Amino acid sequence: MAAWNLYRHRNPDGSSKDWAVTTNTDGSITTRWGKTASNLPGVSNRSGVQQFDIERQKQAKGYVLVGEVDIDVNGNVVFPGKTSATPSQLPESDANPVSVPAPPVEALYWTVDCHAKQYIRVELGIEVRRLIAAIQNVSDDHATPEQEWNGWQQWIDVTLNAETFELSGQIKSMHGVLPWLFLLALKAKSFKGVEIDIATETARDLSVDLKVEQEVLAFFGTDLDSIRETAEVLGLLKPRLNLAAAISNTEDCWF
C-alpha cells in the first residue's frame, strides 16, 4: 500500500467528508474521496499536476490535514500501526472547536478539469489563444505582471492537441493580475465539460463578477478602474458609454 495524505472537511451540520492523495511512481496523481469512514470509494487518476498544488487547492476549500495513512486498492483506509481502519479509529470532530483566524492570502489556487467533447475542446483551444493574444495586445501598466507565470505555456500545451486534461496551479501577487483575469474570462465562457475553479486560501471560491472581488484586486495591488480596459477586452466588463464622444460625433439637428 502507498502512503497517502488524508484530508477532512467538516460540514456545519457536524458531518464530514474525506479526501486523500498520493503520487505514483510514474509521476501521476491518484485521489480518493468519500464520507468519513473506513473506506473511500471515489477514485481518480490524473497526470500533469503536482500533488502540492492540488493539496493547497483542497486546503483553500476548507480541508484540514488529518495525517498520513495507507489505502489499499479497494479504498480501505489504514492508519499507522493498525491492520485495518474502522469508523471508531478515525479522528472525530472536536467537541469545542477553537476559532482560528484565517491566514493572510498568499496566492490564488486554481484547477481545471476538461472532459468536454472534442469539438468543445477545439473551441476551448481557440479561445485560450485568442485571450492570450488579446492580453498581449493590451497596454496596461497596472496589469503588467512583474514575473512570468508558467500557466500561459501550460494552457497552450494542453490545448494544442485538443485532448482531455486536468491542470492545477497557483497565482501569486508577483505574477500580476493578468493570469487571474485570463482564468476568469475562460470560466465566464462556461464551456460545457470544462470545470474551472479558483479559490483563495480562505476557502472562498471566486466569482467572475469583478465588482464583488475588490479584495482580490487589492491583493494584486490594483483596482477596478485600473484594469477596466483589460477587463473590457476580455469580456469581463461591459464597455462604458463615452457620452462626450457620442455627443461630439452627433450632427446638430436643431433648426
Question: Any overview of this molecule?
Answer:
The chain has 255 residues and is an alpha+beta fold. The chain folds into two domains: 2-81; 107-233, no CATH class. The chain is 27% helix and 24% strand. The protein has seven helices and nine strands; from the N terminus they run ββββαβββααβαβααα. The chain has helices at 51-60, 118-137, 151-158, 178-189, 214-219, 228-233, 243-248, and strands at 2-10, 16-23, 29-35, 42-46, 64-71, 77-78, 107-114, 165-172, 194-199. The strands form two sheets. Strands 4-3-2-1-5-6 form a six-stranded antiparallel β-sheet, covered by helices on one side. β3 (29-35) and β4 form a beta hairpin. α2 runs antiparallel to α4. The chain is globular. Mean pLDDT is 80; it is low at 84-95, 97-103 and 140-146.
Summarize the structure.
By secondary structure, the chain is α+β, with helices and mostly antiparallel strands. It has 7 helices and 9 strands. Strands 4-3-2-1-5-6 form a 6-stranded antiparallel beta sheet, with helices on one face. Strands 8-7-9 form a 3-stranded antiparallel beta sheet, with helices on both faces.
